[in-house]
C-alpha cells in the first residue's frame, strides 16, 4: 500500500532525489510500506519539512578519506564545516557559532545521536562524533528542526548510528596517507531473531600538518535493539572515546603564505595540548505503538565528557556531565476531514552538580612567575538546564497543500560561581521564552515542491562563557588577573523568514532556500587580548547590538551523460551565500560579522562504471574572510582542486580508493577566530589547511 502519511507525502509519490551522483535517477520510485528502509523513510520525512534540509548517506562519504566531520559535510549547501589540524571542526549553519574557534564547544546548533540529545548547557564537544560510526546524517537547517525540540539559530544535526539492520556481519577498514595519517576500524552487526546488535572499534593517529599538531584517538560505539512485539521496541546505545591533540596555535596570513607548517611560537614553547581522557555517552530509546495512528517515544541519555586543557600558562581540568530525557507523542489522523499529523514533545537536559573547572599553574610566568607548577589558581562551576515543551502539526488544507504550525515554551537556567580562592556569590539566570512557527508547502507535481516558513529561535549562553566574558578580576595571589565572578548574558533570539523549493527538472535534482533572520542579543565571542609569553589569551563573550543573518543555499545534482553499460557522468554542486552583518552598530556600523566566507562553493564531476570503478574531480572556492569586527583585515580567498579514484564492488564486499587532496598545494586559512579591531595589522588568527595530500584506503565486508 502506498504510504500516504503527511511526513512521507513527497517521497511516497516519488523518492527520486537520491543522494549519490553515482546513483542518479530521475524516474519516480514508489515507496511501499514493506519496502521502505529507515534511510528512505528519513529522506521522505526530510522532504516533508517546509524548509531547508540535508540527507547524507555515509556509504557515499566513505568512498574516500573520512577523517573528520569536514569530510562528512562536503557538498552540503548551507553547511560550513572546517577542521583545524585536529578533530575539532568549526561547524556553522546560517551563521551559528560563526566566531567560535574549532576547539570550542559548538554554539547555535542542537546536535543529536540517534534522535537523542548530545548538546547540553555546556555546548557540544566533538570527540564522540567519529564519522565511521554513522549510517547517515540528517540536517534540519534553521527552525526546521522544531519537531526535534531544536530552537537554536542554526537548527539540528542528527548523527544516526549503524544498527544490525544495515551493518555487515564483519567489516575491516584501513586508511593511510600523508603526514603520518592512519585510521583503522573493525565492526560487526547482525539481526538475531527479534534482537540486533552493532559494535565498532576505531583508532587513529596523525603527525599533523603543522608542527605541534600530532593527534591520536580510539573508541568504541555499540547498540543493542530488541523488538518485544510489532508495537514495542527498545534500543540501548553506548559510545566511548578518548583523544589527544597537540595544539599548534594560530598563524598570521603572512605565515600561512610562507611557512604554513610552523606552529605558533608560544604554543610550541609551551608544548600545548588538548586531552579528552575519556568521554562517555549512554542512552536508551523505547517506542510504543499505541494504535494504528499514534505512538510514544521515550529517551534517556547520560553524557560525561571531561577535558584536560594544557594550552596556556595554566592547566584547566574541566568536568562536564549532563543527563537528558525526551518524550514524544506522535499522532496521525484527520482534522475536520483533512489529513493531520501532530507531535507533542518534551526534552530536558540537566547539568550535574559536579560540573566545573579547576585551574592550576602550568608554566610560571607573569602573575604566576613566583608560584610552583601545580599551584591551584581557581575553582569555578558551570551549571544549567534546558527544557523545551513543543507542539507541532502538519495539516493538509487541500490536496498537496500542507500547513505546518508549532509553538514551543522554553525554560533555561544558567549558573556559575567562583569558589576558590575566595567564595563569590553565584551568578544565576532563569529565563522563560517562546518560539512559534508557521509554514506552508505545496507539491505541484512529484517533481516540484515549494515552501515558506516564519519562525522564532531562542539560544541561551553557555555557562562557561559567563565566566570568560567577565571583566571583574582577582587583584592578588596566583589568581591575579583571572575572572572572580560571572557576567550576565541575555538569551539570543531571532525571527526568520525562509522561502524555497526542491524538485527535478531538465538540469537535474535541485534544492534552493533563501532566508533572512533578524537577530537580537546575538552571542558573539572575540579575542580581546592575544596570548603573550607571560599571559594567556583573553576571549570574551557578550550580547551584540541587532544583527542580520541572510543568505542563499543551493544544491544541484545533474546527469551529464548516461552511457548505460559504459558508465555515467554526473555533476554535483553546492553553493552557499552568507550575508551576516550588524544593523547600525554604534562602533561598527553595518560591518560584516567575521569568521565565515560570503561565498562558498563546492563541485564534483564523477564518472562511475557498472563494474564498480569510479573516478572524480572536485573543486572548492571560498571568498575572503574578515578576521576582525572592524573588517580591517581579511584572510585570503582560495580555490582548491582534488581527485578520487576507486573501486566499490557491486556485491558490496570490498572497496578500495585513492583520494588526492589540494593538488595545487594551495596555502590558505581553513578557519578564522576573530579579533575585535586589528587596525589593519596581520594578527595570528587563522589555522592553516593541510597542504597537498595523498590518502588511500581499503575495506572488506562479510554480509
Automatic annotation (TrEMBL):
Gene3D superfamilies named among the record's database cross-references: TonB-dependent receptor, beta-barrel domain, TonB-dependent receptor, plug domain
A Pfam family that the UniProt record links to this protein: TonB_dep_Rec_b-barrel
TonB-dependent receptor plug domain sequence ranges: 46-156
Protein name per the record: Iron complex outermembrane recepter protein
InterPro entries (alphabetical): Beta-barrel_TonB, Beta-barrel_TonB_sf, Plug_dom, Plug_dom_sf, TonB-dep_rcpt-like
Molecular function terms, GO-annotated: siderophore uptake transmembrane transporter activity
GO BP terms, alphabetized: siderophore transmembrane transport
Keywords linked to the UniProt accession: Cell outer membrane, Membrane, Receptor, Signal, TonB box, Transmembrane, Transmembrane beta strand, Transport
Ranges of residues in domain TonB-dependent receptor-like beta-barrel: 231-663
Superkingdom of the organism of origin: Bacteria
Signal peptide residue numbers: 1-21
Taxonomic source organism: Pseudomonas extremorientalis
Membrane topology field: Multi-pass membrane protein
Amino acid at each position: 500500500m502506498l504510504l500516504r502519511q503527511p511526513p512521507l507525502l513527497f517521497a511516497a509519490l516519488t523518492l527520486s532525489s537520491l543522494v549519490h551522483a553515482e546513483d542518479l535517477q530521475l524516474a519516480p520510485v514508489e515507496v511501499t510500506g514493506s519496502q521502505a528502509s529507515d534511510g528512505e523513510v528519513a529522506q521522505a520525512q526530510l522532504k516533508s519539512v517546509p524548509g531547508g534540509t540535508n540527507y547524507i548517506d555515509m556509504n557515499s562519504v566513505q568512498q574516500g578519506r573520512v577523517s573528520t566531520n569536514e569530510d562528512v559535510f562536503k557538498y552540503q549547501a548551507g553547511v560550513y564545516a572546517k577542521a583545524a589540524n585536529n578533530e575539532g571542526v568549526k561547524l556553522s549553519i546560517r551563521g551559528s557559532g560563526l566566531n567560535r574557534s574549532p576547539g570550542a564547544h559548538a554554539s547555535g546548533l542542537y546536535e543529536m545521536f540517534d534522535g537523542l540529545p548530545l548538546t547540553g548547557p555546556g555546548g557540544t564537544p566533538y570527540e564522540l562524533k567519529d564519522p565511521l560510526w554513522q549510517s547517515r546524517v540528517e540536517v534540519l537547517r534553521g527552525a526546521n528542526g522544531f519537531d526535534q525540540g531544536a530552537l537554536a539559530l542554526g537548527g539540528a544535526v542528527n548523527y544516526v548510528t549503524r544498527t544490525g539492520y544495515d551493518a555487515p556481519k564483519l567489516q575491516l577498514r584501513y586508511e593511510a596517507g600523508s603526514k603520518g595519517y592512519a585510521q583503522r576500524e573493525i565492526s560487526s552487526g547482525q539481526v538475531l531473531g527479534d534482537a540486533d546488535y552493532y559494535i565498532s572499534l576505531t583508532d587513529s593517529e596523525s603527525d599533523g600538518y603543522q608542527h605541534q599538531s600530532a593527534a591520536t584517538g580510539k573508541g568504541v560505539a555499540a547498540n543493542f535493539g530488541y523488538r518485544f512485539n510489532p508495537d514495542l521496541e527498545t534500543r540501548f546505545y553506548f559510545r566511548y572515546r578518548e583523544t589527544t591533540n597537540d595544539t599548534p596555535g594560530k598563524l598570521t596570513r603572512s605565515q600561512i603564505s610562507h611557512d604554513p607548517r610552523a606552529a605558533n611560537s608560544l604554543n610550541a614553547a609551551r608544548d600545548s595540548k588538548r586531552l579528552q581522557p575519556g568521554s562517555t555517552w549512554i542512552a536508551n530509546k523505547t517506542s510504543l505503538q499505541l494504535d494504528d495512528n499514534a505512538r510514544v517515544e521515550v529517551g534517556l541519555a547520560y553524557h560525561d565528557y571531561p577535558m584536560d586543557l594544557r594550552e596556556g600558562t595554566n592547566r584547566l581540568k574541566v568536568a562536564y556531565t549532563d543527563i537528558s530525557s525526551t518524550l514524544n507523542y506522535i499522532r496521525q489522523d484527520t482534522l475536520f476531514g483533512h489529513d493531520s499529523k501532530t507531535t507533542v514533545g518534551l526534552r530536558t537536559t540537566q547539568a550535574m552538580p559536579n560540573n566545573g573547572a579547576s585551574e592550576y599553574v602550568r608554566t610560571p610566568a607573569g602573575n604566576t612567575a613566583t608560584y610552583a607548577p601545580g599551584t591551584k589558581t581557581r575553582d569555578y562551576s558551570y551549571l544549567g538546564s534546558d527544557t523545551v515543551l513543543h507542539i507541532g502539526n502538519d495539516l493538509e488544507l487541500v490536496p498537496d497543500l500542507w500547513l505546518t504550525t508549532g509553538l514551543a515554551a522554553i525554560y533555561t537556567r544558567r549558573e556559575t560561581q567562583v569558589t576558590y580562592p575566595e567564595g563569590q556569590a553565584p551568578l544565576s539566570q532563569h529565563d522563560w521564552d517562546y518560539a512559534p512557527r508557521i509554514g506552508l508547502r505545496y507539491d505541484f507535481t512529484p517533481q516540484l515542491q515549494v515552501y515558506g516558513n516564519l519562525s522564532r529561535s531562542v539560544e541561551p549562553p553557555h555557562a562557561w562563557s559567563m565566566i570568560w566574558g567577565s571583566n571583574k578580576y582577582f587583584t592578588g595571589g596566583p589568581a591575579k588577573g583571572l575572572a572572580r565572578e560571572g557576567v550576565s548574558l541575555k538569551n539570543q533570539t531571532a525571527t526568520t523568514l525562509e522561502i524555497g523549493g526542491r524538485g527535478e527538472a531538465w538540469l537535474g535534482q535541485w534544492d534552493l532556500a533563501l532566508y533572512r533572520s533578524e537577530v537580537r542579543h546575538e552571542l558573539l565571542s572575540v579575542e580581546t587580548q592575544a596570548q603573550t609569553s607571560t599571559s594567556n589569551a583573553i576571549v570574551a563573550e557578550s550580547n551584540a547590538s541587532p544583527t542580520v543573518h541572510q543568505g542563499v543555499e543551493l544544491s544541484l545534482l545533474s546527469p551529464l551523460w548516461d552511457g548505460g553499460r559504459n558508465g555515467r557522468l554526473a555533476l554535483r554542486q553546492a553553493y552557499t551565500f552568507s550575508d551576516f552583518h550588524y544593523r547600525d552598530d554604534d562602533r561598527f556600523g553595518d560591518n560584516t560579522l567575521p569568521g565565515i566566507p560570503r561565498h562558498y562553493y563546492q563541485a564534483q564531476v564523477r564518472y562511475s562504471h557498472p563494474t564498480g570503478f569510479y573516478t572524480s574531480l572536485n573543486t572548492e572556492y571560498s571568498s575572503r574572510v574578515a578576521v576582525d569586527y572592524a573588517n580591517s583585515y581579511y584572510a585570503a580567498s582560495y580555490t582548491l582542486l582534488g581527485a578520487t579514484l576507486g573501486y566499490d564492488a557491486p556485491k558490496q564486499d570490498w572497496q578500495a580508493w585513492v583520494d588526492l587532496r589540494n593538488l595545487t598545494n594551495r596555502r590558505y586559512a581553513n578557519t578564522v577566530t576573530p579579533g575585535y579591531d586589528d587596525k589593519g595589522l596581520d594578527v595570528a588568527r587563522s589555522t592553516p589547511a593541510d597542504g597537498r595530500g595523498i590518502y588511500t584506503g581499503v575495506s572488506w565486508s562479510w554480509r
